[in-house]
Amino acid sequence: NIIGFTNIIEACRYAKTPHLTYASTSSVYGANTTMPFSEQHGVDHPIQFYAATKRANELMAHSYSHLFQLPTTGLRFFTVYGPWGRPDMALFKFTKNIIAGQSIPVFNHGNHTRDFTFIEDIAEGVIRSSDQIAKANPNWDSNHPDPATSNAPFRIFNIGNNNPVKLIEYIQAIEKAVGQEAILELLPLQAGDVPDTYADSSALEKSVGYKPSVSVEAGVKQFVDWYRDFYQV
Fold first, then answer.
1. What is 2-231's CATH topology?
2. Which residue from 22, 58, 134, 158 has the fewest beta carbons nearer than 10 Å?
3. Mean pLDDT lowest among 172-181, 186-195, 220-229
4. Which superkingdom, per the lineage (predicted)?
């Protein structure tokens, strides 16, 4: 993430790109337990290396916005899922194993919650944010700094469904869409994982007029339909 983002942002600087919109992550909230997660909350206590690198990307973006007046918008994605997703992610693996009659690993016994956000909602948010170029906040005060904006053309938004769902309920939605029951392998919470995520996306809605809205049930069904068609199962 560090080297790749450096290459991208350097290329944007030299190409005089009018606006860089990049993917950050809800993982930057780390040890924070105040719900829902707001862009105003602290993000300086990551509990995994991935989150630390994505937070570093946000700080690098601010530096470039300040030094070179490169407008940047960082979007903190919340648990993205949907068709054409990565095969190593939970929805893909769960669907594959349920159809094959194999067990699925369920961490924290399925009790943690995630703000699952459908890929079409993410894509719409990215497009709208990209179309509205980041500007400096004229009211930014260094004595009481807004962590999501700056006196440089920089901003950060959450983009999530604003509706945390228990993992076990997510699995039930997959079972319903597949038409088979899952074989659950119940496991403790993984190191570096957080028990809950919950997005406050009100700043995104206020700025670009968009709020994710696809329910888990509808989104999971779209994924399963795509999966069966693509893999002919």
1. Rossmann fold (3.40.50)
2. 22
3. 186-195
4. Eukaryota
